[in-house]
Write a structure and sequence with these properties.
heterodimer; A: alpha+beta; OB fold (Dihydrolipoamide Acetyltransferase, E2P); Chloramphenicol Acetyltransferase; six-stranded mixed β-sheet; 10 helices; 18 strands; globular; B: alpha/beta; Enolase-like, domain 1; five-stranded parallel β-sheet; 22 strands
């Protein structure tokens, strides 16, 4: 029999919220099989079981917070009772927390009418006569329920066509982090169209690396962004009041949507010296951890700039927001085949070319548009020069 | 001793506790219910059920007394209260057996003993058949209930001075009784005693009996009590009592009022929570200065793994049906299902005296205190056909609505009833208040004819602007 302890999730993380149990009490769990999901202010991760056995007891319920090092569950043989769990395994005995503060985390958040919460017939009729969707009404009754008065004033205000949906944990993190940056940082943006015909060469040679991994457009474009960064230390930096702290290491972070629920930015560390095949492998590895929710805090720390790839195959450009502690986010449109005017035999002619729009959102306190545009041009130059054949 | 592991452990098998157990078990949770005495709690063994059985005994006697009006000659009525007591016990036993079977059928483990919440949130049992057992569970529900409050100078001896606990076990009734406390329980006992032929005096320290009820309802009850020979002394201060030498009777002393010689004193001055030794130090559960457990609308205590329901909860009405409702809220919260907390201002209240009292929502005085302009309509049962038929026309229905800017009646704020079977009639009023109906919305719905509930319907029609029988 053993206590399952919340392991260290990185040096800045002291606690997490258990968001989901994958196993029920009584279920058998293999060693390293995902047991529960933890949400910290950095990342949501699936936590593997430290050993094989039967889940005897869940100590920290879904939605509850636990300190790093706290007991979250007990695993043991299928027979016998759970051991007495050490006192204060979770943050669940705060004598100081009055029930009034507990009530704020009510299961039915104000403003979002959870399915299953009932409307009185009168309230339903008042809202329906007034053409109001009950999900758009903030209830002031017990547990956020909608009173007749709430309904009548909602009808007076008229339909809002808005629904208040509670933020997921990752959205809350994103909102906090990005608003801090947006409020504190004047941002600028430039975009430059560059030649991406190198990708035609990649197509011609085949998309596989020597490891059998797929060479994506993103990998090629990102590698160019990384190499160009070597000449622009001001973009691979962090603004800190009196200083611009330039990083000697180039660590691109990749902005990833997770199931539409939020954004994580896993980092490929020390990318400057990587050949294409190695870069593809490293990117592939972090993406696997994103997909299986096994990102560690280290995966998310140490980014020196970020990359936003084209979210669709027809995207021209995106204007991403700066991330905290960085001076640049590089964005790529889709690398599209477009008509290009070339001078052939002294005459302007239209030929099929491949172009991509490279954008940079930058911290305008320390970077200006000319520098950002020069960086984009440099990305274009490098894109012409990657030795695909030897690097793949 | 045995140790148990389950999803939910509940301390106390009264209405709050057993309802939580049954509801949790119905949702598939494993449940251990700890009870020191018998499941069913105060309500089934020492409260609601036995008290109402006694009141029904008094009702049967009234029916017999009026039988001649219907053409039945029954001779002199004699009474054997030991038989009445036995019938009450048989009703209680039947319900106890049913509840025990229900718990067993749902696979709820019932342990016998006094439960105590330890600092590691396990529950240990002292005394009883399962003493020494320990239960660990994901969630704990405190439902330890309440016991009758007593007052200094009136030590309960079970013969001259009794509380509801002893009163409900009597096999004979006193000729002369003083009921201390004119609240719901006191009025029920006083009403039953006076109907059974006892000479009854109610002693109340407040200016009126039934504090918290609407004044028009109180007036109906007071009039009916006095008409049956009951004496009601309000605003009194008790200083003690002196039993006679044989301890067959006692004299109650009052400050500024005549002494009162009685054969029994029934103390009904409220109930205090049973939280002595309910918990060890360090559980994180907050107990207020009056000994009640502090919980939020979702019945969570200050420790999120510990819930509380029923009489033990601070600031909520001590009513069995409130305990049931709180049990459902607690279990749904544990299950993570959406749930609306109990709206304590709008729970139904029922007092089973003769006449009965039932109400829901704000009294006229409370509504005005909240700053509402109100429209009020009252309809006595005297004009009700069914009331004439059953020969019980004492009572009234009062409905209070918010006054709109144009002077008409808007949302119904309170429904107050006194009279025959009003505890069974309150349902419609309860819906009207909780569904926040306006007078006209409720008035357009029909009551069956002839029925006592027509009085409520007539009051609504009048409130909506124009009555048929009532102005």
């Amino acid at each position: 029999m053993a206590n399952v302890i919340l392991p260290s999730l990185g040096e800045s993380v002291t606690e997490g919220i258990v968001t989901r149990w994958m196993k029920q009490v009584g279920d058998f769990v293999e060693r390293d099989e995902p047991l529960y999901e933890i949400s910290t202010d950095k990342v949501d991760s699936e936590m593997p079981s430290p050993e094989a056995g039967v889940l005897l007891k869940i100590v920290v319920a879904e939605g509850d917070t636990v300190d790093v090092g706290g007991v979250v569950a007990v695993i043991g043989e299928s027979t016998g009772a759970a051991p007495a769990v050490a006192a204060a395994p979770a943050n669940d005995a705060p004598a100081a927390s009055a029930p009034t503060s507990v009530a704020k985390e009510s299961p039915a958040p104000v403003g979002s009418l959870a399915s299953g919460v009932v409307l009185s017939p009168v309230v339903r009729r008042v809202l329906s006569d007034g053409g109001i969707d009950p999900r758009t009404v903030n209830g002031t009754g017990p547990g956020g329920s909608i009173t007749r008065r709430d309904a009548e004033s909602a009808v007076l205000r008229g339909p809002s066509g808005e629904i208040a949906v509670p933020l997921s944990n990752s959205q809350r993190r994103m909102a906090e982090h990005l608003s801090v940056v947006a409020n504190a940082t004047p941002q600028g943006f430039v975009a430059v169209e560059v030649d991406a015909s190198l990708l035609d060469l990649v197509d011609a040679l085949g998309r596989e690396t020597r490891d059998g991994l797929v060479i994506t457009d993103e990998a090629v474009l990102s590698l160019a962004a990384v190499r160009a960064m070597a000449d622009f230390p001001m973009l691979n930096a962090s603004f800190d009041q009196e200083f611009v702290v330039q990083s000697l290491s180039i660590n691109p972070g990749f902005i990833r949507d997770v199931d539409g629920a939020g954004v994580v930015v896993p980092v490929v560390h020390a990318a400057a010296s990587l050949a294409l095949h190695a870069f593809v492998r490293r990117l592939h590895d972090v993406d696997e951890r994103v997909a299986t929710r096994q990102l560690t805090t280290d995966d998310l720390m140490g980014g020196t700039f970020s990359i936003q790839s084209a979210p669709s195959t027809t995207t021209v450009l995106t204007v991403p927001a700066l991330l905290p502690g960085q001076t640049a986010v590089v964005s790529f449109g889709a690398a599209r085949h477009v008509p290009v005017v070339q001078i052939i035999d002294g005459r302007p002619s239209i030929v099929v070319g491949r172009r991509v729009v490279v954008g940079v959102t930058f911290d305008h306190r320390v970077v200006d548009a000319a520098l950002a545009a020069a960086y984009c041009e440099r990305v274009g130059e490098i894109l012409q020069s990657v030795a695909i054949e030897s690097e793949r | 001793m045995a140790s148990h592991d389950c999803d939910v452990v509940i301390i106390g098998g009264g209405p709050g506790g057993y309802a939580a157990a049954l509801y949790a078990a119905a949702a598939g949770l494993t449940v251990v219910l700890v009870e020191r005495d018998k499941v069913g709690g105060t309500c089934l063994h020492r409260g609601c059920i036995p008290a109402k059985e006694f009141l029904e005994t008094a009702h049967v006697r009234r029916t017999l007394e009026h039988a001649s009006e219907f053409g039945f000659r029954t001779g002199t009525t004699t009474s054997d209260f030991a038989v009445s007591q036995a019938r009450k016990n048989s009703v209680v036993t039947t319900m106890f057996t049913g509840l025990t079977g229900l718990l067993k059928g749902r696979k709820v483990t019932v342990l016998e003993g006094t439960g105590r919440l330890e600092s590691d949130l396990s529950v240990s049992l002292t005394d009883g058949a399962d003493a020494g057992s320990t239960i660990t569970a994901q969630h704990v529900i405190l439902a330890s209930g309440s016991v009758p409050r007593t007052i200094p100078g009136f030590d309960v001896d079970g013969t001259l001075v009794v509380t509801s606990d002893e009163f409900l076990d009597l096999t004979s009734l006193p000729e002369r009784a003083a009921v201390i406390g004119g609240g719901a329980i006191g009025c029920e006992f006083a009403s039953m005693l006076v109907d059974m032929g006892s000479s009854v005096t109610v002693l109340e320290s407040m200016p009126s009996i039934l504090t918290g009820c609407d004044k028009d309802v109180v007036a109906v009850v007071e009039r009916a009590f006095k008409k049956r020979g009951m004496e009601i002394r309000t605003g009194v201060t008790l200083t003690g009592h002196t039993p006679n030498k044989k301890r067959t009777a006692t004299t109650v002393h009052l400050d500024g009022s005549d002494d009162l010689e009685v054969d029994m004193i029934v103390v009904s001055v409220g109930r205090r929570p049973r939280t002595d030794d309910l918990m060890s130090e360090g559980t994180g559960v907050e107990i207020n200065e009056r000994g009640f457990v502090v919980a939020d609308g979702y019945m969570r205590t200050a420790n999120p793994r510990v819930f509380a329901v029923g009489d033990v909860v601070a600031g909520t009405p001590q009513l069995a049906h409130v305990g049931f409702a709180e049990a459902v809220v607690a279990i749904k919260t544990i299950l993570g299902e959406p749930v609306t907390p109990v709206n304590y201002e709008r729970v139904p209240w029922a007092i089973y005296s003769n006449p009965e009292v039932a109400f829901c929502g704000l009294t006229e005085a409370a509504a005005k205190e909240r700053g509402y302009d109100v429209v009020v309509k009252k309809d006595p049962f005297g004009g009700n056909g069914r009331a004439q038929i059953i020969g019980d026309t004492v009572g009234t229905v009062k409905v209070i609505a918010e006054k709109r800017a144009d002077g008409t009646a808007g949302q119904i704020l309170g429904v107050h009833m006194a009279g025959p079977w009003v505890t069974e009639q309150l349902g419609a009023g309860y819906y009207a208040v909780n569904w926040e109906a306006t007078a006209e919305e409720a008035a357009m719905l029909i009551q069956p004819h002839p029925s006592l509930s027509e009085t409520f319907g007539e009051t609504l029609l009048a409130l909506a602007g124009r009555g048929i029988h009532v102005g």
